[in-house]
Every structure is written in structure tokens, then in C-alpha cells.
Amino acid sequence: MARCHVCFRHCEIKEGTLGFCGGRTAENGVVKPFNYGKITSLALDPIEKKPLARFFPGSRILSVGSFGCNLRCPFCQNHDISWSEAAEQYAKTAETVSPRELTEIALKTRDRGNIGIAFTYNEPLIGYEYVRDTAMLAQKENLKTVLVTNGTAEISVLDELSPYIDAMNIDLKGFTDDYYRRVLGGDLGQVTAFIEEAVKRCHVELTTLIVPGENDSEEEMRELSSWVSQFRNPDGGSVPLHISRFFPRFHMTDRAATDVGRVYRLAEIARENLPYVYTGNC
Fold it and tell me: Has residue 15 been placed in a domain?
């Protein structure tokens, strides 16, 4: 058995098996990234799609994903690659791309407005070693590196990555312990601790998906936005908050999409505390 140190689960992984996330395994008594360099998704996206509203707006970024995730969001739009049931399938079929090869792909798309590499689609922190190794090379080539993450990781993982990361969009999926535990299978405390440290090290923006009947109260948004308001990015600016509309997906098709008016109302409430609030999927 080998114990994983990435997130609050601290999985004890038997030799040759996978941890809860489906992206980490044990080999010779050492936990290693099972999904290292195994790429399932690659696209050149507008930076605003990450979403990042105040980090090189108008630019594009090479977005890359692997497989596996340490949460179990029942509405996940990328469940085919993020839920661990897909891990062994993608381990066989995903293209293996070395950090150097990915950096070269990013360099070749500079003439199309690309500023760097964004690790997204699945949860990049469960394979942080690949992110680190690629970001180190990208930094030498003056490419920007972005993380789109659920923030469910120990600070030790952030310590390894942060010297090479320029920006993050972190999901703050709600602001109650119950929602994180019962619906997402996560840990709110670990996410808030991660955010609190991340804002000291790079540009951070946050995203909250509003799920009807779960995290859509005005009281919760007031508490969430008030908490966010205490932080400043390294340039001194307030941390932007993206409030997104839910659509029925995957295991959560039993409720309607979030009312657009509700999203706008929650954005108004967030603006009582924050200068940069954006709505998405409306």
C-alpha cells in the first residue's frame, strides 16, 4: 500500500491499482500519476472560455485535458473523461504527449493568438507532475500557464506548481460543507484553504455554478462573495467571480436549468461585495 498526498482523501493505493480519482496508481510502493502525458482533449480556445475575464483578454490559449477527477459532481459536463470509470479505457486509447511535445505544439500556435497552455477539462491537479514538468518548459519559452481546477488539493501540491503557474480559475462550487460533502463528494475546507494560498501566488478568478435547490440562495451568495472580497490578486486587484447557469447533465437531469433571472439576481448580490462579477451560460 502507498498513500497518496494530493487531496483530502489520502487514498491508500494497492500496487497496480488506482486511487479514487482514477488518475493515480502505486508502483513499487510509490504513488505515481497514472495519467501522465495521456491526453484526451486538445483545443485552442478563447481565454474567456476558461473562464478568465481579466487575464490577457482577447487572447487564445491551448487547452489540454487528461482523465480522472477527485470529485463526483453529478452534473459534470465532462464526465466521460473525469469520472474514474473511464480511466483504464483512456489509459489504452489516449495519445501520450511529452511535456516537450506539448510545449512545441503551443509554440506552433502562437501565430494564431496563443499565449500558452491551459490545463483543464478533467482535474489537472491529480496529475500535477505533468502540469509541473510542462509548465517549467513553457515558462522558459515565455508561454503562460493556466490551471482550471476544483482546488481540491493539499498546499504541498500548490507549492510545487505555483512557481510556474500564471493564472488559475478555481471552482468555488458552493459555500456550505453539506453541499460539498453530500452532492460533490468534496471538502469545502480544503478548497477555501487552496484559494487563500493561490491568490498570493498568481492571478486567480473563481467560478460558482448555480444549481437550483442546492446553492442558489441569496444568503449563501452574500456569504460567499463577502468571503471572496477579503482577497487580492498579486497585482492588488479584487478576485473576479464568475456566476454560471446550470443545465441538466449526467446524473442530475431531474431538475430544470437555473432561471436566468436567478443568476442575474445572485450576480447583483455578489456585486455588493465585489467589483468584478460575471455571468455565464445565460
Answer: no
pLDDT in single tens digits along all 282 residues of the chain: 899 999 999 999 999 999 999 999 999 999 999 999 999 999 999 999 999 999 999 999 999 999 999 999 999 998 889 876 666 777 778 889 999 999 999 999 999 999 999 999 999 999 999 999 999 999 999 999 999 999 999 999 999 999 999 999 999 999 999 999 999 999 999 999 999 999 999 999 999 999 999 999 999 999 999 999 999 999 999 999 999 999 999 999 998 999 999 999 999 999 999 999 999 999
Contact yes or no for 12/195 (Cβ under 8 A): no
- Residue numbers of the domain that contains 121: 37-280
In a domain, 70, yes or no: yes
d(CA 133, CA 8): 23
Residues recorded for the chain? 282
What's the whole-model pTM score? 0.97
In a domain, 264, yes or no: yes
CA distance 112 to 114: 6
Spacing of C-alpha 110 from chain mean position: 24
Q: Residue 108 sits in a domain of what CATH number?
A: 3.20.20.70
Q: Tell me whether residue 221 is in a domain.
A: yes
